[in-house]
Amino acid sequence: MSNELSCKGSPTSSASVRASLVTDESHFSLVSLNSSVSQDEFFRCRDHSDVVLKRMQDYLQSEKLCDVVLIAGVDGRRIPAHRLVLSASSAYFSAMFTGQLRESQQEEITLQEVSGDALNSLIQYCYTGAIEIREDTVETLLATACLLQLSTIVGACCNFLARQLHPSNCLGFSLFAEQQGCTALLKLATAYTCQHFQQVWKNQEFFMLDAAQLANLLRSDDLNVPNEQEVFHALMAWIQYDAEGRKRHIPELLALIKLPLLQPSV
């Protein structure tokens, strides 16, 4: 009973009690910080990069803080952008803006032989990480991506084209890939051409090859044919397509045919 009375009858005011609690809590916090168990914390915002990219995209759309204008040489389209974003996305722009090239000091830069639509799509990709690849624009997009050294887009375009391979277009894809330096697509298209040679040589693209291109094809040991007669017939068909202009190539091309494997009836 005395304990209860002493507690209730304590002369300590409620304000002093609160002060004591604060003092105790402060003391407790100091003790915790000085304890042997660290209370440090490493914080990471998972959405930070997405939020920053979205803000940069908003700046692009509103043309705020833009410090360079890219001009497409084909049609003159003008596209404002930010050097920092372009340099972070493209090795081509990184070399242009961080090196000693005169473009690093220019506010307007013309990219020759580049179309406005392809350039705009690739600039948008630098800010969003997303791009639409369509059958009617993929070759232009790939050529521009190769120029800007956007390797992820080059790979995506090559994969897209690889899925479109057909005996009627594989030779064209091979030539295009060679021109653009797309080794992955070139390898796929060449392998497809060899595998489907019996169908390939009956399509228009085959007859449009020049002598050097045909020689490279006939020189391959990977042609999927039932016999050497198939290769011989393909060569003869190519020559007859323009006999007057191509007959001078007969000796060099005929040397690529494995004549001992031909049947006597040929």
TrEMBL record:
Keyword Repeat belongs to the record: yes
Gene3D superfamilies xref list: 1.25.40.420, Potassium Channel Kv1.1, Chain A
CDD domains noted in UniProt: BTB_POZ_KLHL1-like
PANTHER family documented for this protein: KELCH PROTEIN, KELCH-LIKE PROTEIN DIABLO
MF GO annotations: actin binding
Name of the featured protein: BTB domain-containing protein
Pfam family, one: BTB
Residue ranges occupied by any BTB domain in the UniProt entry: 66-135
UniProt keyword annotations, A-Z: Actin-binding, Kelch repeat, Repeat
Residues passing through the membrane, by range: none
